[in-house]
């Protein structure tokens, strides 16, 4: 009888001790523009006196984007000590400066990528330099289905009516998308040659085509492409969204319910028109 | 919902047609397949014993008294589902296959947890049992999704052959709008219909007596299971029991004019 061999699949048979989940947490940015140990400590103490509730083990991200002076010789350890003495817990450093990131590594600080370098000319450049594409996807996905897009998201989206996203080839799915499944087409269109079940979610940076009944959630233009559209053979969706503007099924159960439609976005709302 | 009743009926049906068949109860801790098969008093060793190497497969298999080619591998009542491991299950299935078993039916527990995952992981074909109600159909949809993404065939880029068995179907209640119709369910799940088992008292009676309902060749439920077995074995059989029984010309005319 063959003995049990340790295999890659083994781990799934053991009860997991943890699971990894994504989370979005608000973090305060401590932007240091000038360094003088005495001044910094004094000013922090003043702030702490004014808002003692805030300075209780509050995690902060250190940023030196607006720093005036020489960054390479900055003693990060001293700044950390001062912050901690006043009840702030620096958890990460946001900087692209090598000497600082090296110090941060030694001090066990997380390192966040620097804010996007803004090359003044070339309006397209912003979307083409995409080091933090991942982070963006996450936030866009997470905030898209939320009721009433937040102000900051609106701001981010409004100038992007002609956003240019690196186009990937379309993703074509021929099998039904079942309840509990999620399919995302990054950078392109999503084409589904079957039904999308209730409880399923389909997302695309571009358009979404469903050659079947759309019963689940469909989110097109999740990175803010306002020209994205959703096409389906039978509109029975739980939610449809284009670039963050959405309608839920209660709003959809009108004359277009269970008919073939296309959904586009004009100005601030979604418009649903029958497919002829 | 009828998973265990269905496992018992279908495994009996396949065995009665001359194929060497095993039916395994994956519902560790809540075994009831052996009760429906009326062999609970003959259980000495169980599935978990075999997986742990405490008993040989031959010792644990129970030969069915009604169908000659049928063997039952009962679940353990004293363990929980975590006792099942992928390697262990694979080893038992392989041993059964080497032993000349043509069909191995895995009776899955309810839910989408470890036990169900173990039962479906090695499947070549899955029979999804659903009742004609919205929540059951939704759960089946979910299971079909997991089946086509998490099973071994899915990991190898293949598809598990899937089919749908609708149990506790009552055409009269469908007509009254109290139950989902076959068409609705087929449309929602977009999968092949294996059969429709009519709601029937004989099903309950049979399971209480420990006789798989397929042995009751008089009852519509037994006949419907026989049809389903024939379809599994590749025969073309027309679907039955899907519409209200004819109640005579007068009543039909009356309904039409109403």
UniProtKB/TrEMBL annotation, chain A:
<dbReference type="GO" id="GO:0051302">
    <property type="term" value="P:regulation of cell division"/>
</dbReference>
<dbReference type="InterPro" id="IPR016098">
    <property type="entry name" value="CAP/MinC_C"/>
</dbReference>
<feature type="domain" description="Septum formation inhibitor MinC N-terminal">
    <location>
        <begin position="18"/>
        <end position="90"/>
    </location>
</feature>
<keyword id="KW-0132">Cell division</keyword>
<dbReference type="GO" id="GO:0000917">
    <property type="term" value="P:division septum assembly"/>
</dbReference>
<dbReference type="InterPro" id="IPR005526">
    <property type="entry name" value="Septum_form_inhib_MinC_C"/>
</dbReference>
<comment type="function">
    <text>Cell division inhibitor that blocks the formation of polar Z ring septums. Rapidly oscillates between the poles of the cell to destabilize FtsZ filaments that have formed before they mature into polar Z rings. Prevents FtsZ polymerization.</text>
</comment>
<keyword id="KW-0717">Septation</keyword>
<dbReference type="GO" id="GO:0000902">
    <property type="term" value="P:cell morphogenesis"/>
</dbReference>
<feature type="domain" description="Septum formation inhibitor MinC C-terminal">
    <location>
        <begin position="172"/>
        <end position="272"/>
    </location>
</feature>
<dbReference type="Pfam" id="PF05209">
    <property type="entry name" value="MinC_N"/>
</dbReference>
<comment type="subunit">
    <text>Interacts with MinD and FtsZ.</text>
</comment>
<comment type="similarity">
    <text>Belongs to the MinC family.</text>
</comment>
<dbReference type="Pfam" id="PF03775">
    <property type="entry name" value="MinC_C"/>
</dbReference>
<dbReference type="InterPro" id="IPR036145">
    <property type="entry name" value="MinC_C_sf"/>
</dbReference>
<protein>
    <recommendedName>
        <fullName>Probable septum site-determining protein MinC</fullName>
    </recommendedName>
</protein>
<feature type="region of interest" description="Disordered">
    <location>
        <begin position="124"/>
        <end position="156"/>
    </location>
</feature>
<dbReference type="GO" id="GO:1901891">
    <property type="term" value="P:regulation of cell septum assembly"/>
</dbReference>
<dbReference type="InterPro" id="IPR013033">
    <property type="entry name" value="MinC"/>
</dbReference>
<keyword id="KW-0131">Cell cycle</keyword>
<dbReference type="InterPro" id="IPR007874">
    <property type="entry name" value="MinC_N"/>
</dbReference>
<feature type="compositionally biased region" description="Low complexity">
    <location>
        <begin position="139"/>
        <end position="152"/>
    </location>
</feature>
């Amino acid at each position: 009888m063959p003995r049990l061999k340790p295999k890659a699949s083994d781990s799934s048979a053991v009860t997991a001790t943890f699971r990894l989940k994504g989370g979005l947490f608000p973090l305060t940015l401590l932007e240091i523009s000038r360094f003088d140990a005495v001044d910094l400590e004094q000013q922090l103490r003043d702030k702490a006196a004014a808002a003692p509730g805030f300075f209780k083990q509050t995690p902060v991200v250190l940023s030196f984007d607006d720093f005036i002076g020489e960054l390479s010789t900055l003693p990060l350890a001293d700044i950390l000590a001062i912050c901690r003495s006043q009840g702030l817990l620096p958890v990460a450093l946001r900087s692209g400066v090598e000497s600082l990131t090296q110090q941060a590594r030694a001090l066990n600080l997380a390192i966040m990528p620097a804010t996007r370098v803004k090359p003044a000319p070339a309006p397209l450049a912003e979307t083409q330099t995409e080091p933090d594409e991942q982070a963006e996807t996450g936030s866009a996905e997470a905030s898209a289905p939320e009721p009433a897009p937040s102000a900051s998201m609106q701001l981010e989206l409004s100038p992007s009516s002609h956003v240019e996203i690196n186009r990937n080839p379309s993703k074509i799915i021929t099998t039904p998308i079942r309840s509990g499944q999620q399919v995302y087409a990054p950078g392109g269109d999503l084409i589904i040659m079957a039904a999308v079940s209730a409880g399923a979610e389909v997302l695309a940076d571009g358009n979404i085509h469903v050659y079947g009944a759309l019963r689940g959630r469909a989110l097109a233009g999740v990175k803010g492409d306002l020209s994205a559209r959703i096409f389906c053979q039978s509109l029975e969706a739980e939610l449809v969204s284009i670039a963050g503007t959405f309608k839920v099924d209660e709003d959809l159960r009108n004359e277009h319910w269970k008919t073939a439609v296309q959904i586009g976005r004009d100005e601030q709302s979604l418009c649903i028109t029958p497919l002829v | 919902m009828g998973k265990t009743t269905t496992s018992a009926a279908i495994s009996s049906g396949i065995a009665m047609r001359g194929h060497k068949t095993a039916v395994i109860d994956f519902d560790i801790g809540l075994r009831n397949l052996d009760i429906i098969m009326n062999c609970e008093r003959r259980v000495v060793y169980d599935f978990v014993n075999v997986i742990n190497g405490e008993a040989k497969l031959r010792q644990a298999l129970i030969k069915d008294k009604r169908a000659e080619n049928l063997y039952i591998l009962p679940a353990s009542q004293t363990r929980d589902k975590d006792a099942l491991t992928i390697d262990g299950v694979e080893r038992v299935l392989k041993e059964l296959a080497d032993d000349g078993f043509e069909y191995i039916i895995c009776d899955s527990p309810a839910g989408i947890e470890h036990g169900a995952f173990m039962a479906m992981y090695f499947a070549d074909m899955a029979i999804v049992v659903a009742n004609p109600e919205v929540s059951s159909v939704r759960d089946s949809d979910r299971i079909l999704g997991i089946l086509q993404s998490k099973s071994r065939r899915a990991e190898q880029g293949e598809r598990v052959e899937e089919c749908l068995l609708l149990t506790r179907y009552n055409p009269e209640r469908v007509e009254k709008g109290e139950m989902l119709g076959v068409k609705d369910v087929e449309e929602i799940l977009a999968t092949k219909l294996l059969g429709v088992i009519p709601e029937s008292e004989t099903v309950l009676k049979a399971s209480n007596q420990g006789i798989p309902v397929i042995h009751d060749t008089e009852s519509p439920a037994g006949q419907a299971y026989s049809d389903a077995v024939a379809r599994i074995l590749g025969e073309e059989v027309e679907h039955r029991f899907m519409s209200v029984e004819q109640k005579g010309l007068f009543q039909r005319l009356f309904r039409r004019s109403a």
